[in-house]
Amino acid sequence: MDTSTVKIILQILHYIFFTYAFLAISSYIVLSIISGKETLNYFKKKSFVNYKDILSSTLSPSITIIAPAYNESLNIVENVRSLLSNHYVNYSVIIVNDGSKDDSLERLIKAYNLEKINYIVNEKIKTKPLRAGVFKSKNPAFERLMVVDKENGGKADALNMGLNISKSKYVACIDVDCLLVEDALLKMIKPFLDETETKVIAAGGVIRIANSCVIKDGKLLDINLPKNLLVQSQILEYLRAFLLGRMAWSKLNGLLVISGAFGILDKNIAIAVGGYDTNTVGEDMEIIVRMRRYMEERNEKYRVSYIPDPLCWTEAPDSYKIFISQRNRWTRGTIETLKKHRKVAFNPKYGTFGLISYPYWLIFERLGPIIEVVGLLYFTILIVLKEVKWEYALSFLVLSYIFSVLFSIVAIYSEELTFHQYKKKGAGVKLILLSALEPFILHPFVLYAAVRGNFDYFFKKKKSWGNMVRKGLTTN
Amino acid sequence: MMIDYQHLMTYFNESPIYIQVAWGTSLILAIAIVCLSVYLKVLRFHLRKKEIENKLLKSEYEALIIEYLYTEDELGDGHTFKESVIEQLQSAILIESKRKLIISILYNLTYEVSGELSDTIKTLYIKAGFVAHALKRLESKHWYIIAKGIGELSHFRIDNVYNNVSKFLDHPRLEVRKETELYLVELFKFKGLSFLNTLTDTLSEWMQLRLLETLQKFDDQQICDINPWLKSQNESVILFAIKLAQIYNQFEVQNTLTELLSHPKKQVRIAAIQALTHLYGIEAKEMLKANFNDLSLEEQICFFGMLEKLVMPSDEPFVEKYLFHKNFDIQLLALKILKSINIEKYMGLSKTTTNEKDSSMIELVNTI
């Protein structure tokens, strides 16, 4: 190859990277504009809705909360108490003890006065069998509660057991350690009941980080910004993702994922598609994609809805090791889901789903980290070959950094104008400073975890969830 | 400094266009960051200050209003405590933020009190002059402000503004139309449902729920004739009317409900079976039994639910055919029904079956 050919190749590569970055940034801008408009619209609609009129209605549809638990004995009693304190009238709670090796079941039996009942599971979805069986409380105060003890089969299998047992039309699948705000179920069920022309098959809400918050008797009493920089960065990351991204995808009816921490599904459709996939670590994304395919293939009008209210608070990893393990799993989940449903990609038969959502996830979520790493390697090679045009490199590096800081600040601004959750003095300044630091203290680890996720998926075929060590949410 | 600046400008002017654009954009974005950061600081300060003020004002007005509610009507021509509260509120509501705050206090109180106290809140709302402000909202060009205004008038049951509100029944925004419909029901109870006669919009489940909850608040539960709605062309109106039939025990519409068993929409047929179960529709039961094989699976399950409640010994041969049905729900219900009408035959089932699943089902039903 002569020098001119090399130069042409380098030029082409430059344009590819430039176009990719340009498209990614443009998509962020477009999505945040749509999100802003949609959030405004949501607030307009919400301004005259009086939830209290419906809150105590016995005519409201029934919802079953399904919460899988594995070795959660440390906090399980308090967590269940929190789940039982929701203000919605017509709901029940199924705790699926997924073959825990600790004394979770014994603690629950003691705390809630449980007794074993005769029960045959209508196995609409195949699951691992029951172990100790099904338990209900002798105390009428806990009549909503059912505890199912089964052999270990993973989170998806436990959720499927809950789907088999639930008698409600809607199921709220949540992580047992999540804290739901008192009107969470009512707010989340509204999109299902509001739609008349299309069927809402699933709905999700904003997940917030509860580390350092004060919680008592399952209620969030005080919201604090954690001291740990990693957790603070994740707060910023969640604000960006939920306030500037998902609302737009909801408007475009392009949501591919409802967080596994808290989401409501139409039970019949979830069962019709075969429930959660037990062979993936990204079961929350996979079931939504499968439910969407199911509806598209039947030419039925549907929506995956999303509301911006902070309804669910969860514990975020506070060490890099756990954080990387979590993000590694998310990456593998995305790869598995997109691979399994590759038929959807760029397929006009699937409408917005096939032509916009799926390609976006594929190009910017799935391939994003790989392209970034390739870009970094390429840049290193150019440095070694002394081919870097520093004037260009520096100006674009500064531009991309400033854009990322601005984008985070816009997310903080949206938060302040909407929910204003971090009210304490000094929290605003901390979040702004964090916007400047986050590209250095969080992004490199997100990238590393994504690369590790790819490596594990292709070479180790790692199927496990990885450890998510929980410390439990602060109690007062 | 000047030299540095000139040097920078020269560098910028001599740079290629891409670099100029990148630095130029960076500068604009950096200015935006600074402006937004300063504004965020101001915004947060303002929000915090407002919140503290609101907290103070809330406790102040809440105490005042509660005292008003629990104060006996004073006799005499002098300036009474109640009059002074009304005057205070009248001047307070001239400021929008205070008006919003007082309205929210009144809203919350309506959920905590009932009877006479509820009427006193309404009187206070009227006397303090909130109606005029709500009516002003109806003149807004923004649909959500109109909807909010109607919702407020509806919540406090302000009936003398009917003409101002009813015109919104034809508003282009669905949300406004729905709030108007709720206002009518709040005002005229069951008669307010007359909009259902001509309704072309689909009545969402959320709206149905709100209507039903509004209706249940009234002491007078005398329902009007729901037959026309059961025969409506609007499927959502039929479903709503079926709910009314069930909640208000409308035995007289059994025939119309039975006719709905052949409605083209499955959802309507299922709702009709459920309502007929509640209303002891024996004739419908026989009809469904005769056409059982033509029903969809969901209808069949629903019918077995009906049979469980309305079963008679004569149903035994029918039930026997489904004791080992492949559908879990049908089998479970069939076994439970047989157990309730012929325990001896039921007890003999375990001897005749060899299938493990069937045996466990029989054993389970036995323990229920």
From TrEMBL, chain A:
Keywords annotated in UniProt: Glycosyltransferase, Membrane, Transferase, Transmembrane, Transmembrane helix
Keyword Secreted annotated: no
Cross-referenced CDD domains: CESA_like
Keyword Transmembrane: yes
Membrane spanning stretches: 12-36, 367-385, 392-412, 432-451
InterPro entries reported in the protein's UniProt record: Nucleotide-diphossugar_trans
GO terms assigned for molecular function: glycosyltransferase activity
Family affiliation: Belongs to the glycosyltransferase 2 family.
Name this protein carries in UniProt: Glycosyltransferase family 2 protein
Organism: Wocania arenilitoris
Lineage: Bacteria, Pseudomonadati, Bacteroidota, Flavobacteriia, Flavobacteriales
UniProtKB/TrEMBL annotation, chain B:
Stored Gene3D superfamilies: Leucine-rich Repeat Variant
Domain of life: Bacteria
Organism: Wocania arenilitoris
Keyword Membrane: yes
Keywords assigned: Membrane, Transmembrane, Transmembrane helix
Name of this chain's protein: HEAT repeat domain-containing protein
Keyword Transmembrane: yes
Transmembrane regions listed in the UniProt entry: 17-40
